[in-house]
Amino acid sequence: MTMIVGLGFLDESYLISDSRISYSGQKDPEDRLMKVFQVAPKMMVAFASEHVYFTLEILRRITDYSLKNTNPKKARFILPHLVRKANFEYNNLLTEYKIKTPPRMEFLYCGVVDKPQMFSSYLLDEIMKRRKSSSFMVPEKIGRAMMERAVGIWSLSPPCPIIYKQLFPHNPSHPYIHLGYATGGSGQEVFYELEKEYYNFFDWDLGTTKGIILENIIDEYIKKNNIPTVGGIVQVWRINNDGITPIAYQRKHHKDNSDEGEVTRELRFQDGNWTLTDYESGENLKSTRVLADYFKPKKKTRIDKSSWSNY
Fold first, then answer.
1. Side-chain half-sphere of 16: how many Cα atoms within 13 Å?
2. Predicted confidence (pLDDT) per residue in 10-52, tens digit
3. Is residue 220 in a domain?
4. Tens digit of pLDDT for each residue in 260-300?
5. pTM of the model
6. Do 263 and 171 reside in the same domain of the chain?
7. Phi and psi dihedrals of 167, rounded to 5?
């Protein structure tokens, strides 16, 4: 089915997914499905689903709702409205298409918000305890939070990361995640791999290199565990106060420990889609067309039995 991952750091978040889809009744999986979509100026959502086009139509509808209800001149916390809208459209589509067995789905929202967030001091305490480097410099945000904290409570100044996982057909109550991580889909056991590495990212100001390191961690996990419904291209998206940035990369083969190397594999993004070129094998793989386009969410998605998939 899918592996989806969201991680929150001090002033940014990362959303990650694989690209494999295994349709029911189809012998071989496809490794080029785009599962990450923009739903607000500084927010994205990744999905895992038992019924792909059903899910894409919900994404189209909540994207359309977001465009009509997000005013850049007024600060509005859009996430709870999107969660309620997604739940409403899920039930509406069940009735509209007379679907008797509600498909299982997961939405993982990931973004940044422009308001301070209050949360337990546990995570920042863990960052201070479990950091890897002895020369660790306390980030300014943590320093300010330490000076201003109340008993057991920290206030993180904006921009603040935010992550939320929504389950269908039943969504138990659970809090937003700010600093931390969440996983979903059939590859969600990667949670334990992230648990080993997460705190190390606070030792350095890595910029977009953080996204490349995360891509390597997830890619190695997928190859090592060989989960039939997880695979293909690992897509990484960085979300911060500047907006949304897909993490492109080049992999090189270096000879004789030289800095210069021959490019063997390259991932590029254009207009919301990705293209992977493997120069050694000659493979050129392109993602499937984005059906729920943030800027043109008008075309209704065709929903039929062919889009049921293996969860």
1. 34
2. 899 999 999 888 777 767 788 878 888 888 889 999 999 998 8
3. yes
4. 667 777 888 877 677 888 887 887 877 765 444 444 545 56
5. 0.86
6. no
7. -110, 145
pLDDT, residue 311, reads 43
Residue labelled with tokens 């320093």: 143
| 30 to 94, 228, 232, 283, 309: CA distances (angstroms) | 26, 11, 8, 14, 11
CA-based nearest residue to 36, from 10, 16, 52: 16
Q: Which residue has the tokens 């998206």?
A: 237
Q: Provide the domain count of the chain.
A: 2
Question: Is residue 104 domain-shared with residue 216, that is, in the same domain?
Answer: yes
pLDDT of amino acid 93: 93
| 134 touches 194 (CB < 8 A) | no
Helix, strand, coil % over all residues of the chain, rounded to 5: 30, 30, 40
Q: Is residue 224 part of a domain?
A: yes
Q: Say whether both 124 and 261 belong to one domain.
A: no
Helix extents (H) in 28-182:
52-69, 79-96, 122-130, 140-148
Position 241: which residue type?
A: N
Using 50 as the pLDDT threshold, list the residues of the chain that sit under it.
290-295, 297, 307, 311
State how far the Cα of 64 lies from the Cα of 293, in Å rounded to an integer.
Answer: 9
Q: Does some domain include residue 42? A: yes
Instruction: Decide if 113 contacts 158 (C-beta within 8 A).
Output: yes
Same domain, 10 and 111: yes
Paired residues of 237 in beta bridges: 15, 246
The bridge status of strand 273-278 relative to strand 261-270 is: antiparallel
Give the range of the structural domain holding residue 271, as residue numbers without chain letter. Answer: 249-288
For the record, the structure tokens of 294 come out as 């943030």
Compute the Cα dihedral for 7, 246, 111, 151 and give only its sign. positive
